[in-house]
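Appendix B. One record, verbatim.
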Amino acid sequence: MTAETDVDQSIFLSAAHGRIDNVERLLLGGCSAEMVFPRKCGESLESGFSGAVANALTGIVQPEDVSITSLEKDSLRGSLGEGDDGGGAFTQRCVVVSFAIAPGGGSPLGEHVLERILAPGFAATVGCRIAEDSRSGGQRGVFGDADGPDIVAVLKESAKVWKCGVNDRDKAGGYTAMHWAALNNQTGIIKMLVRHGAALPVPMLVNPDQPGV
C-alpha cells in the first residue's frame, strides 16, 4: 500500500493533509468490489465498465459515480463460472477489475447498494451490457456474433461498503478527524466537519462561518 493510498483510505490522514474532497467521500460512504472477466474484454472494460455498472444499478448511481481503481489485464485466476474462489487450478487468464462507487451531489450511499451488487444477476447484467456496447462498436470479431454468447463475468466476494463517522477516533491516540484538522491548521476541513455535525474538542471553539481556528 502506497502512502497516497493510506491517505485515501483514512479520514484522519485526509483531514491532516487537507484532502477535503476525500474526507467528504469517506463521510458519505461508498462501495468497493472486484469483478473477473474473460481476457478478451480488456479494451472494452476501460471505456464501458462504469456505464455498465451504472446500468445494472439503474436509479441508484450515475456512470461518473463509478471509478476503476485497478485493472489487471492478464491475471491468472481459477476457472470462470466456478466462483473464482481460488479453490481450483489457476489456469484461466482473466481481466480483474477493482472498482469503487462513491455518490456524487452530496448524497450518502446506503447499504442497499451492496445488496444490489451481491444480488444474483448483477455480474451477468454488467457483462451483457459490455458485450452489447462492444458489438455495437464493431468488435464482433472479438465478442462473437450479435446472437452469440454474452460475456461471462464473476463477482468476487470482496464487495464491501465503507463509511466513516464524523466523530470516529483513530486507534493510535483516540483522536478524531477534527483533532487532526485542527492540529494541522486545516480550516476548510474544520468548517466542513462542523457542517457534518462533528463534535468540537474542548477547549476548541470554532465558528464555521469565520476564517481561522
